[in-house]
Amino acid sequence: MSPFLVMCLLFGLTFGQTASLCAPSEYTVHVEKRECAYCLAINTTICAGFCMTRDSNGKKLLLRSALSQNVCTYKEMFYETALIPGCPPHTVPYYSYPVAVSCKCGKCNTDYSDCVHEKVRTTYCTKPQKFCNV
């Protein structure tokens, strides 16, 4: 194997994480409360994309720390709060959600990320929609 090819391979393995496709992406969240008259469609940004991970086929031969799977997660974010219209006075009509400013590949933090494989389908409303743009 040529020295140039070996250097390219080593560079790719070392810095491949920076070339991943993890970035803020537009997303619409649908929020409903049973007591409220409307469903709120919120346009926001989330972190989405591809991150390099390690193959766990050799998990019996490797240390546990070498088996980490990276996910696309928040590097910088802030929270917005939206008012759900049509709520009666005894109901809290607010919904807070994260807005991604920048993203990174890293371990999934359950404090602010959903780390499960299957997501809950929230791409619909059962009540009339109102829109909220960030």
UniProtKB/TrEMBL annotation:
<keyword id="KW-0732">Signal</keyword>
<comment type="similarity">
    <text>Belongs to the glycoprotein hormones subunit beta family.</text>
</comment>
<dbReference type="GO" id="GO:0005179">
    <property type="term" value="F:hormone activity"/>
</dbReference>
<dbReference type="Pfam" id="PF00007">
    <property type="entry name" value="Cys_knot"/>
</dbReference>
<keyword id="KW-0964">Secreted</keyword>
<feature type="signal peptide">
    <location>
        <begin position="1"/>
        <end position="16"/>
    </location>
</feature>
<dbReference type="GO" id="GO:0005615">
    <property type="term" value="C:extracellular space"/>
</dbReference>
<keyword id="KW-1015">Disulfide bond</keyword>
<keyword id="KW-0325">Glycoprotein</keyword>
<protein>
    <recommendedName>
        <fullName>Thyrotropin subunit beta</fullName>
    </recommendedName>
</protein>
<dbReference type="InterPro" id="IPR006208">
    <property type="entry name" value="Glyco_hormone_CN"/>
</dbReference>
<comment type="subunit">
    <text>Heterodimer of a common alpha chain and a unique beta chain which confers biological specificity to thyrotropin, lutropin, follitropin and gonadotropin.</text>
</comment>
<feature type="domain" description="Glycoprotein hormone subunit beta">
    <location>
        <begin position="21"/>
        <end position="125"/>
    </location>
</feature>
<dbReference type="InterPro" id="IPR018245">
    <property type="entry name" value="Gonadotropin_bsu_CS"/>
</dbReference>
<dbReference type="InterPro" id="IPR029034">
    <property type="entry name" value="Cystine-knot_cytokine"/>
</dbReference>
<dbReference type="GO" id="GO:0005737">
    <property type="term" value="C:cytoplasm"/>
</dbReference>
<dbReference type="InterPro" id="IPR001545">
    <property type="entry name" value="Gonadotropin_bsu"/>
</dbReference>
<keyword id="KW-0372">Hormone</keyword>
<dbReference type="GO" id="GO:0007186">
    <property type="term" value="P:G protein-coupled receptor signaling pathway"/>
</dbReference>
